[in-house]
Amino acid sequence: MGSNSWRQAEEWPLPGTRITDYYLHNTHKANSINGDGRLDTLHPADEYPDVYVYHPSIPVPALGGRSGAVPDLTPMGPKNQIPVELRNDVLVYTSEPLTKGLTVIGEVVAVLFVSSSAEDTDFVAKLVDVHPDGRAFNVAEGILRVSYRNGLERREPIVPGEVMELHLSLGPTAIVFLPGHAIRLDVTSSLFPTFDRNPNRLLNPGEVTEEDFVTATQTLFHDNNYPSRLKLPIIGE
Description:
This protein has one helix and eleven strands, in the order βββαββββββββ. By secondary structure, the protein is mostly beta strands. It has a single domain, classed as Galactose-binding domain-like (Jelly Rolls, Sandwich), CATH 2.60.120.260. The strands form two sheets. Strands 1, 2, 3, 5, 8, 10 and 11 form a seven-stranded antiparallel beta sheet that branches. A four-stranded antiparallel beta sheet has the order 4-9-6-7, with no helix packed on it. A hairpin with a 5-residue loop joins strand 6 and strand 7 (136-145). It is globular. Keywords: Hydrolase. Pfam families: PepX_C. One of its GO terms (molecular function) is dipeptidyl-peptidase activity.
């Protein structure tokens, strides 16, 4: 994508792949596109964490992406993410516009240091290509139900307020971020109806009703001790 071309290789990951960390930053807060969340290769120092509230009664809607739930309601593919990035329960981190093209081929991973007030919750990470005119198109996305953070064999409740290191795979992609474009990471706690809403409780999803829903206060840390970051597989730089 981006260059609209095909590439072939005999190995995966591609030879010469360099995993580069893009760290999350803010000055005040990264809530919504109106915040000041930033993404760059500088390791964070002392920074305030970002906080948002997730309630499953008002989930963040899926806008493009994998879909697979109700195609008429959530059509698949690239869609402008601005409507969801206007929400305060979406954290938005954006790089400076690129001076030259950046080729990303391979698995994209978000490493997030987080805490929650709930006994279980979800975290969603989305890689976005920001065009010079401000349009922002989804490239890859991933979700993690935190009670499965140590494997699918058994669920483990969250200790409220405890900082956890989460690794969210956004899956493999292949894109050239063109000159003048910017790289963006969105973080939130729902992607509905592509994925079911987490009630923020350690319950069987098939038995959950709206009466079970509770509010979760989510905290995302990005400082010297907790360097939350986006790991990009970069080719040829």
